[in-house]
Amino acid sequence: MSDTAVKVIQKVTWIGSLANIALAFIKITVGTMTGSQALIADGVHSFSDLVTDTAILIGSRYWTAPADKEHPYGHGRFETLTNIFIGVLLALVGIGIGWESLTSISEQAHSKPGMLAFAAAIVSIVVKELLYRWTAIKAKAINSRALYANAWHHRSDALSSLPVAIAVIANYFVPELHYLDQIAALIVTAMILKAAAEILWPAVLEITEAKADADIESKIQAYAAEDSDIKEVHAIRSRRTGSTILLDFHLLVDPVMSVDKAHTIAENFKSHLLYELDEVVDIIIHIEPFNCKERVLNPCCDDCDSDINTLS
């Protein structure tokens, strides 16, 4: 990752942190003043964003580091660990808010939230949605999954403020519906847990070495078909490390071709793939002769000891 990308991550995260501090303080203070449990819960959610911001600021110093002797494949998994931390923290915050709401849902409200609580929720929705859109654009520009996960943390905060605003305004005009505040907090919980799952699942797939991209094999085959010197590509394997993808596959060429020419074909194809596939940063190609023994996609005979001169 370039120095420019690192600076983008640092700048976006610091601005988001300052916004989170302000919003958390406003929502918790106003929630306490007006007696809105949902707004307080939403403020705690905003405060949890500060922890994830810190994880991004610290983690980015590691996952952006180049490959070294101890980490020959790079440091991308540090970004994966950061995503896991963000997802787990979100889940814990959601569970805590949900438990507090469930245990107090039958309690009578001592006061009804006023329009100040409604205004605080609206401000949160607007600010956090703007932060989400801006952070997501920056994350896409530099291809950072962790920054995009943090963008969704902003979006979950914006969405969580929506039921809070609805509950506050409904409770203001219809005090008998005091339980709407707790129900809104439960809706906030569901949204937080959903966001946590959407962040955690890709990280789990990466840690368990799942295929990086469902479409990557078909893309490679399509590019290979455009090169007449490439007879076949098979045994394609891909894995993700942070925001990048590592590839390896077998490439078959004319068996009478010189090693030097076969190497050149492989290197040119590798360069082409690195240019076309944005997330791919390294490719290992195993060159094989295009004969009956090595062919996989279109086997030419049942007896693999056949003379290679019978090849079409």
Fold and architecture overview:
Helix 1 (3-34) runs antiparallel to helix 2 and helix 3 runs parallel beside helix 5. Helix 8 links the parallel strand 2 and strand 3. Helix content is 64%, strand content 10%. The chain folds into 2 domains: 3-207, Up-down Bundle (Alpha-lytic protease prodomain-like); 216-310, Alpha-Beta Plaits (2-Layer Sandwich). The chain has helices at residues 3-34, 37-63, 77-104, 115-142, 145-173, 180-207, 216-225, 259-276, and strands at residues 232-241, 244-253, 280-289.
Number of helices: 8
Percent of residues in helical segments? Answer: 55-70%
SSE pattern: HHHHHHHEEHE
Q: How many β-strand runs?
A: 3
Tell me the domain tally: 2
With strands numbered from the N-terminus, the spatial order across the biggest sheet is: 1-2-3
Transmembrane segments: 12-30, 81-102, 114-135, 180-201
Protein name: Cation transporter
Pfam families: Cation_efflux, ZT_dimer
Keywords: Ion transport, Iron, Iron transport, Membrane, Transmembrane, Transmembrane helix, Transport, Zinc, Zinc transport
Task: Put the structure in a nutshell.
The chain is mainly alpha-helical and 312 residues long. The protein has helices spanning 3-34, 37-63, 77-104, 115-142, 145-173, 180-207, 216-225, 259-276, and strands spanning 232-241, 244-253, 280-289. It has eight helices and three strands; from the N terminus they run αααααααββαβ.
